[in-house]
Amino acid sequence: MARKDDAASAANAGRLKQIALTYKMTRRADSKIGLVLAAVGLVTFGVLLGIGFLIGHPVYLGILGVLLAFLATAIVFGRRAERAAFGQMEGQPGAAAAVLDNVGRGWTTTPAVAMNRSQDVVHRAVGKAGIVLIGEGNPNRLKGLLAAEKKKMSRIVVDVPVHDFIVGDGEGQVPLKKLRTTMLKLPRVLAGPQVTQTNDRLKAMGDLMSNMPLPKGPMPKGMRMPKGGPKMR
Length: 233
Hints:
Blueprint: H1 2-29, H2 33-55, H3 58-89, H4 95-100, E1 108-115, E2 121-127, E3 130-136, H5 139-154, E4 162-166, H6 179-184, H7 192-205
Parallel strand pairs: 3-4
Antiparallel strand pairs: 1-2, 2-3
């Protein structure tokens, strides 16, 4: 029992530390976050308490007001923290890959499956909606990069829908903050075994890093072997 209590206490302390860290990070981009959260909590509690006095049950509605005020504050805090995080990531290389890592269960993501010399990059996600290709960089160059990736996949994966998006704020593009929502709204057309089969075929095709040729001769000083690279037999 003592060990369980210690583990629970450590977990709670970790959560509180994470919340505090998230608040500090959010406050850097949203200086009014403290005032907003206080206003949401007080207004929610005040409304419920006022209703309680009107109907003659201030204690019950007061307790309910505290609970709802905490819930409303948590929801607002989560949304503003997410908005602040997207604001800090937007325009940074690999921002879309970071969003894909948190898109949710049921999705398998592979960053940088294609890239050109200008560092325009294509990421891939596979789920019950099919295959999703996400491009980051110059829209004009990405069109060719996405088309080439689709053509390469078409040789291996058949009858699987392929969606492609370019991250950005221009016409026909998907803003970074809406990328996750846009993917989750896609119709689910594949069953679990089909998703697994699609992933296996794409892995057999390889990605940019696994297909990157290694230089012949001795390895340059200071260069490390990439993870997942060929093993000695």
